[in-house]
Specification:
This protein has about 240 residues and is an alpha/beta fold. The protein is built from eight helices and nine strands. The structure holds adenosine-5'-triphosphate (ATP) and magnesium ion.
């Protein structure tokens, strides 16, 4: 593939010796909005954790192209966790400053400026002094997104960004994700089972089958709907429709 930014070769992932997913091989080209689809429990979050370098694969290799000078891959990947994973005892600003404190030696002033910028970019300016418990679900997602963007990563991993939001807020978040992709050129890997979101933002995708424990479809979600490669993909992409 031309200009792959992430390449997985023969990956198995799991939490003990028995893999939840196996024989996972795919590439994501730079600048794509890529969706990981599949029913609940099939291993989407697990695979994303492995791609973020937070879970070591049982087998296989994950390569992430890095153009950062220091070659620090972790710096090049921002992750929005399923449920946000904000630290509840820290303010919004402190949450966003965390990756900057960990990976850079920027001054306090510079960090404060970046925090302000990222909150504005995520569409929640001026809430830096609030605590996560004071935020709505949609605001928490946006703060999680601001934190994921803190280090200007080339790759954003988003785990169910619109889950739990009403359709209008979910649509707004989808538009923000597309805007980040277009304006910054960020490669976006999004786990989702929200059909509106999948069809609206996904340029490329894989489908993970919980019975086969591997990828059983690959391609643009709209193309997969038009020409479903198997019954499970068709069922997944047309559920709730008559
Ligand atoms: N930390 C963990 N330790 C052990 N098993 C885990 C852990 N996290 C997830 N699992 C198991 O791995 C399997 C896949 O879970 P995962 O969270 O990756 O699924 P998912 O596709 O993201 O589901 P959902 O759509 O509900 O978020 C499940 O059987 C789950 O119980
Ligand atoms: Mg999950």
């Amino acid at each position: 593939m031309k200009n792959a930014i992430i390449r997985l070769s023969g990956i198995s992932v799991g939490y003990d010796k028995s893999p939840i997913l196996k024989n996972i091989s795919f590439e994501i080209s730079r600048g794509t909005v890529f969706v990981i689809m599949g029913p609940s429990g099939c291993g989407k979050s697990t695979l994303l954790r492995a791609m973020a370098g937070l879970l070591k694969p049982l087998r296989g290799k994950i390569e992430v192209a890095s153009s950062s000078v220091d070659g620090d891959t972790m710096r090049n990947i921002g992750m929005l966790f399923q449920g946000g994973a904000l630290f509840t005892s820290m303010t919004v600003s402190e949450n966003i400053a965390l990756p900057l404190l960990r990976h850079t030696d920027y001054s306090a002033e510079r960090i404060e400026k970046i925090v302000t910028e990222k909150l504005a970019l995520a569409g929640v300016p001026g809430i830096g002094n609030m605590y996560p418990s004071q935020l709505s679900g949609g605001m928490k997602k946006r703060v999680g997104l601001a934190r994921a963007l803190a280090l200007d990563p080339e790759i954003l991993l988003l785990d169910e960004p619109s889950a739990g939001l009403d359709p209008i807020s979910a649509g707004n978040l989808d538009r923000l994700i597309l805007e980040i992709n277009r304006s910054l050129g960020t490669t976006i890997v999004m786990v989702s089972h929200d059909l509106d979101s999948i069809f609206a933002v996904g340029q490329d995708s894989i489908f993970l089958d919980p019975t086969a424990h591997t990828i059983t479809a690959r391609g643009n979600p709209n193309d997969l709907l038009r020409r479903p490669p198997n019954a499970d993909v068709l069922k997944f992409l047309t559920r709730g429709k008559k």
